[in-house]
Amino acid sequence: MNVLLLGGIGAVAAEASRDLFQHGGFDKITLADVNVEKARAFAREIGLPLSSVVRVDASRPEELTDVMRGNDVVLNGLSNLFHLSVLRSAIKTRSSVVDLNGATENMESLDNEAQEAGVTYLAGCGATPGITNMMALKAAEELDSVDEIDVSFAAFRSFALSRTLLDLTISEFDPREDVKERVIYESGSLLQVLPFNGEKMVDFPEPIGTQPVFFVPHPETRHLPRSIKTDRVYTRGCFSPGIMRFLRVINEYGFLRTDPIQIDGAKISPRQLLSEYLLQVPEAARENVWGYGLHVEVIGQRTGRSVRHTLWSTHPGMDEWGIPGAYSKNIALPLAVGARLLMERKQRRTGVGSPDSLLPAGLFFKELEARGIKLHEEVTN
Asked: Residue 200 pairs with which residues in a beta bridge?
């Protein structure tokens, strides 16, 4: 089996790449990135031969296809700007792919083509989406029917750990009313909601503790009803208290607007100004508590009685996993587990889909536990 680490040197993707290399089992590993020098430095760090490093410009579809050809599994760490191109190349090369980001509607439209090619595109295989999807699946498999799925997360890290994560944090609470992805699922319909709506208090394991969570634009809301028949799906989330306070303030004062303002004759949007500021000041790079809290409640029926399954995860803390590992490993290790299950051909079907529609829950959590992420469950009537 040959595996390609495509853009696998970013903060999160590098953790997944490192895990795959350390656990072995592949005949050949190739590391492809547009930044060859950075890729070679990472290869030296993990002990991968420099001959395994190749350059790829993902903006060139034919180049992307060439580098993917001959690989059984591709771990995609590229920007989501290239994910549709990666899927198209996967169908041409018959390579299966594991990806952090959830599948878009354009990608889902290629599901039949992927199935005909015998290709699996495992999308959204991180912490949330990813682990949370599989928590919901595990509980649903133990019920006769499912009434409601409540997904919650608490992502504790610095505000500006990277430009990508900064943009992601801001987008979770974008104030625009037409944010297409911020929805809840009720009775067969997706209903749009505003930021800081749907507040709920959730008890996460220490050091995160009890936190208020709010509706967020995450793929679980759209994807879970496709694999689990249910009446309601709610996805909520939060960041550390300081970041949440700041997000409320910048919402209130319009700092997330994208229409430009003038500063000394130059035009810049408040949102761009804010982002550039946060990326340059040390305060935005600091955070006292690093970790990832995941919590899923599934309410349904079993043998004629109402049952509530509550599932949550724990992981090694900052003393063992370090910073940013106590946060980033929760995203990276599910990605590596997904790649390994694809390598072992453990997927339930081919095509484009989320983990709950493609992977077996038992094997998924067994692999995660071997890496330090543990699942806990409580069942009440």
From this structure: 213
